[in-house]
Write a structure and sequence with these properties.
Layout lengths: L2 E7 L20 H5 L8 H6 L21 E5 L8 H8 L17 H11 L3 E6 L2 H15 L2 E5 L4 E7 L5 H14 L8 E8 L6 E2 L4 E4 L7 H7 L3 E5 L2 H4 L7 E3 L4 H12 L5 E7 L1 H7 L4 H21 L4 E6 L19 E6 L7 E5 L4 H9 L13
Parallel strand pairs: 1-11, 1-12, 2-14, 3-4, 5-6, 9-10, 9-11
Antiparallel strand pairs: 2-13, 4-5, 6-7, 6-8, 12-13
Amino acid sequence: MKRVFLIVLDSFGIGEMEDAAEYGDKGTNTIGSVSSSSYFQVPNLKKLGLFNIEGVECQKKEPVDAPMACVARMKEASKGKDTTIGHWEIAGMISENPLPTYPNGFPKEVLEEFSRLTGRGVLCNKPYSGTEVIKDYGEEHMRTGDLIVYTSADSVFQIAAHEEVVPLESLYEYCTMARELLQGEHGVGRVIARPFVGTAGSFTRTPNRHDYSLLPPKTTMLDQLKDAGKAVIAVGKIKDIFAGKGITEFTYTKGNAEGIEKTLEYLDKDFEGLCFVNLVDYDMLYGHRNDIEGYAKALAYFDEKLPMILDKLREDDVLIITADHGCDPGYTVTTDHSREHTPMLMYGKNIKPVNLGTRDTFADIAATVLDYLGVKQEVAGQSML
């Protein structure tokens, strides 16, 4: 019974890609910034071979003589640097065209139709930090009931609302309306519910965020695995990223700690197929907030739990650790995602620990998973087996 556990450390980039300047990300290096913290202690990732990956430049870089895992540096072949595009490519779908972004806010006709559907007005409508937008517009939102709509450098339509003003069920319903509205020309990658609580001067976001992604327009490895009768288990926001397509079982989580616990639980269960995990805190709580110390602590926490994951792997299991893009917390020009290479660490009792250099696409992960699970590949990428 073969199982693959694919863990995405959301935004854990390992250095700018060659075209980073085209995205305004020249000089970005998430691992480089995070390694400047005294909390950056990752002895188990080091043993697997994190510092042996080609091109990794950071403080405390200490390659090991005999890495435990097969390692590679991954390039993104798609046009973009966001969660949706990155995960779709990991799953074997390369996006030739970037998803639409709105540096000047959303068009009038889009917001007028959104207001008509929801019966509520709109505040903000410009790129904004998620924590700053509720600080600046939260009080007016509570007074008027108008929804705070904002975006970022990524292809997102974000709706912030206070849980006492707009019940969660209503906010999720508004997001569903927005998702149905934003198709075609205005088909943003994600509509995101951003609930918050508190009073003026002390508003805080809650863990009840939900993402509503576009339906992947092409076949992914998830579709292929499901069609072949394999399990496709989604942990964290994976279900939302793929709009539920190709998934047989899912569980949401409220942070990295719960995501790791759910992964440990699935390691004890019998199934044949893929357990696809997203650990979002690196991106959501630390990268976007330029919080180097918090990012380092979160990586150290995962590293601390890693031996428990490795100990539970069975004879025919494979563990793959990777990322979907960068979000350099030390890059103060912007708080948005960064166009970076990502790591790939593949470990299993039957996996030879070789260095595969730099790969041309994240999709090689999808090809490898399908190859290992015995499903004929119909997606992009080349197997690394």
